[in-house]
Design goal:
- The protein is α+β, with helices and mostly antiparallel strands.
- The chain is 32% helix and 31% strand.
- The protein is built from six helices and seven strands; from the N terminus they run E-E-H-E-E-E-E-E-H-H-H-H-H.
- Strands 1-3-5-6-7 form a five-stranded mixed beta barrel.
- Strand 5 and strand 6 form a beta hairpin.
- Helix 3 packs across helix 4 and helix 4 runs parallel beside helix 6.
- The chain is globular and about 50 Å long.
Length: 200
């Protein structure tokens, strides 16, 4: 289900943050300090979109069209003096139009997408037990601990989002994955990815 268009600030990243995943960010550019300040003051989410070409710092990059709405769940002052925040993916967005403000902050008109509530609560069927076990194995890696992939109840939707966050897939795959509204079909996409990896 899609919503009407709404304006939202964007944070382009080289990595994607998928729904239900938590990720730490280090903030030091003035444009993103403004984004964080506005987000905290007004309890306003913002969008994280993958970079298609360019860099995270300096001139605004070219972005992919599909990304994730995120909220700041906590923040602190790091030992290096920079601001650290933890963001959590909430739902899928599609950028319909974007522009860059004078300070370099990217704004966009976006459409938000979400699965039906019942779809998001589907239990994990036996067919996907192997993938659930794979996620358990991957989350034991120290590098995955910052993503908080064990937070909250696990169901078919969260299993798919979190496994897709960790598997070595292309940005193109992530873009296709975000466009798929059905959690069962997202899991079928991941089944194929794992089968392809096992054949290599």
């Amino acid at each position: 289900m899609a919503t009407g268009l709404q304006q939202m600030a964007l944070f382009p990243l080289s990595a994607l943050v998928l729904p239900t995943v938590t990720m730490p960010l280090r903030i030091f550019e003035q444009r993103y300090l403004r984004l964080v300040r506005d987000s905290l003051r007004e309890s306003r989410p913002f969008g994280v979109v993958p970079i298609q070409s360019g860099r995270e710092v300096g001139k605004a990059p070219t972005i992919q069209k599909w990304g994730t709405v995120v909220s700041i769940i906590d923040w602190d002052q790091r030992e290096d003096g920079l601001l650290g925040i933890n963001i959590r993916g909430e739902q899928v967005l599609h950028v319909e139009e974007s522009w860059v403000e004078p300070d370099g902050l990217m704004q966009a008109r976006v459409r938000l997408y979400s699965c039906d509530h019942e779809d998001n609560e589907q239990p994990i069927p036996p067919r996907f037990t192997v993938l659930a076990n794979l996620l358990d194995d991957l989350t034991r890696h120290p590098a995955a601990s910052v993503l908080r992939l064990q937070d909250g109840e696990r169901n078919l939707a969260t299993l798919g989002w979190r496994l897709a966050q960790l598997l070595p897939v292309s940005k193109q795959f992530h873009q296709q994955f975000l466009q798929q509204s059905c959690p069962w079909q997202r899991m079928e996409m991941l089944e194929q990815v794992v089968a392809d990896i096992n054949e290599q």
